Amino acid sequence: MIVTEEYRLGQDRILSCVIPQYENWVDSILNELNRGRDNFKYSHPIGGRWENSYLSINESPSVRVPMRLAREIIKEKWQKPTIVLYESPFNSKSSHPPFWFNIAKFKDITGVHDHAQLASFSGVVYLQSNSLSGHLYFPQSGGDQFSIIPEVGKMVLFPSHVRHGVHSNRSNEERISLAFNLYPFPLPSEDW
């Protein structure tokens, strides 16, 4: 059984947990990521870096492990069925898969955003980080916010409409995370 910490943000819940025996699949994902760096596809530059780095599921098959685990946690904790997709749900050759890597060097940040377009839940898993790597934060009304300290093997799950960002990486080590979206099950047929 996985022990989760729960946070409230208005009506929304955010779950955080450290996955038992994460070392095997974290190492596999990092190895696949490092082998595939020359094949990255990118979505958009922000602040002088590429915000999201994409590899195909064939180049990073180990991402299946945490994404499937996220589906099971969401089913248990939210009582919501979701579907894990490894290719874009959109019928466009230029669309990226619904999972990506964020690689943040010293002083890199990620601005406040959400993943609401058709996804129902989103997640992040830390693959390489330390307490100085930049906390995941969730702004609240009135300017308050709460944050989650990055930790290798930690997974954070939240509804896709929840706005979030990442504070500046104050470590000399790259912060590497896997981010992903899960979709409602069954998938809507006409809206895709």
Compose a concise summary of this entry.
Helix content is 15%, strand content 35%. The longest helix is centred in the middle third of the chain and has 15 residues, at 64-78.
Write a structural description.
With 192 residues, the protein is α+β, with helices and mostly antiparallel strands. The N and C termini lie far apart (35 Å). It is globular, with a radius of gyration of 16 Å. The protein has one domain (4-183): q2cbj1_9rhob like domain (Jelly Rolls, Sandwich). A hairpin with a 5-residue loop joins β11 (136-139) and β12. The model has no long low-confidence stretch (mean pLDDT 89). It is built from two helices and 15 strands. The chain is 15% helix and 35% strand. Strands 1, 2, 7, 8, 10, 13 and 15 form a seven-stranded antiparallel sheet that branches. Strands 9-14-11-12 form a four-stranded antiparallel sheet, with no helix packed on it. The relative contact order is 0.23.
